[in-house]
Amino acid sequence: MKKIKSLIACVASLCIVSSCAFSVSAAENENQTINGPATTMSNMEDLSNSVINVTVTTQAYKAEVTEAVAAVTDVTAAAVTGAEVTAAGAETTPALTAETATLTTTAATTTALETTTSEALTTTVTEITSEAVTSETVAPKHTNDIVIGLDISGSMSGKPMEAMKDAAVEFCKYTLKNDPNARIAVVPFDHNSTVGVSLTNDEAALTNYITSLDDGGSTNFTGAFDTIMLELQTGTGERKSVVFMADGLPNNGVTDYSTEMKEKYAGKSYGSYDLGALKVDNEKVKPNANVYTVGFFDSLSGSQKDRAVALMKDLASDPVQYYDADIDTLKEVFGKISEDIVVTTVAYNDGNSASAETQKVTEKAADTTDKTNGTPKTGDTRSAAPLAVTAIAAAAVVVLVRKKND
Predict the structure, then answer these.
(1) Domain containing 149 — which CATH number?
(2) Which of 39, 170, 283, 293 has the greatest count of CB atoms below 10 A from its CB?
(3) Residue range of the domain that includes 8
(4) 171 and 52, same structural domain?
(5) What is the pLDDT of residue 344?
(6) pLDDT at 235 over 90
(7) Of 337, 352, 367, which marks where a domain is finished?
(8) 75 and 158 both lie in a single domain
(9) What does the pLDDT look like over 344-356, one tens digit per residue?
(10) Closest by alpha carbon to 172, among 341, 30, 324, 390?
(11) Do 162 and 299 have their domain in common?
């Protein structure tokens, strides 16, 4: 606006100058008459210079006006363009909103599919790991807990005591050599009983303790059985065995001469200590362990020996698990018992392994049948095909979303 005002002022000046020019011209005409041609020419030069100056000024203002008009045109064009952009944006907004909604839905679907796939993979890995752990623990590393009950009463003094020690040491060596994971405990007894060595596979500890034993005192079977069972209860082996060796009849401990026990063992001339030992053995030991008995009856004879042999057979889990021994055969007898325990353990572990393998084969067959029929197992909401489809669909959606974002 300032430039326009300047232009108007310039035009006004031009008009004034023109007016003056005409006035001067008239005056000069008069002067021409008076002063002659020289004065007139000078005045005309001055007038010409003034006109030139006005013309230059007018052209400058004209350029400024043109520039101002161009600026106004640019602003107007920008305003028009802004309006068009705004209109275009208004038209584009619904489409962009719809596209955004589609992408949001796609992202949510992708997340759901990824979550489902992750859960499925986690469950599958857990099942495989569980199966592997189960297969490794079918045959336990520690199967046998064995307690040796050794008679150290006064009647064992001398060679019987030394023979028993040698036989017990060889038993431990042989058993641990063939079943290194077995655990053996030693419970010596006379009128009292104690745990000499707790369940262990430390051969040196067992040997050192057994060779240090001394004899003395009476014979208490019930006390020995109670101590043996307390030790077995601390063990973690799946199979528990007892090797019980004595050189005579019990003469100390708990007695029982009830009608029930007398009737149960009618025809056998058992005393109250014998029946007391049988009751504890029947109620506590044999239900929880496999019992082997060894009779070392060099000092007995006649009916007393027969009674002792009968008692030891009844104390065993099976009469065939009773062994009669003397100084010369005691080591061999302990060796046979050790071998029987080891062989039974191997058969036990093999049987468990075979049963486990059979069970795994059966489960695999059932699993294959379920998948062939397209029916998941009970409690399983997935099958192999849906998992694969889910994974592929999730991957495809992720790719599409990335392309959209690009």
Answers:
(1) 3.40.50.410
(2) 293
(3) 2-89
(4) no
(5) 80
(6) yes
(7) 352
(8) no
(9) 876 666 666 555 5
(10) 341
(11) yes
Residues 154 and 271 in one domain: yes
- Residue 176 CA from chain centroid, whole number: 35
Residues 6+ apart with CB under 8 A from 57: 10, 13
The count of domains in the chain is 2
- Are 154 and 218 in contact by the 8 Å Cβ rule? The answer is yes
319-377 tens-digit pLDDT: 999 999 999 999 999 999 999 999 887 666 666 655 555 555 455 545 544 444 443 33
Does residue 183 sit in the same domain as residue 264? yes
Identify the pLDDT of residue 9: 53
With a cut of 80, say whether residue 289 has pLDDT above it. yes
Q: Are residues 346 and 255 in the same domain?
A: yes
**Separation CA 360–CA 224 (nearest Å):** 43
For residue 282, is it within any domain?
Answer: yes
SS3 label, residue 323: strand
Tokens read off for 363: 């489960």
Contact criterion met (CB below 8 Å) for 1 and 68 = no
- Please give the pLDDT value at position 132: 52
Q: Is the pLDDT of residue 399 over 70?
A: no
In terms of domains, do 47 and 156 share one? no
Structure tokens at 377: 């197992």
C-alpha angle 41-45-49 in degrees, rounded to nearest 5: 170
Instruction: Retrieve residue 254's tokens.
Output: 């708990």
Nearest to 152 by CA among 198, 216, 197: 216
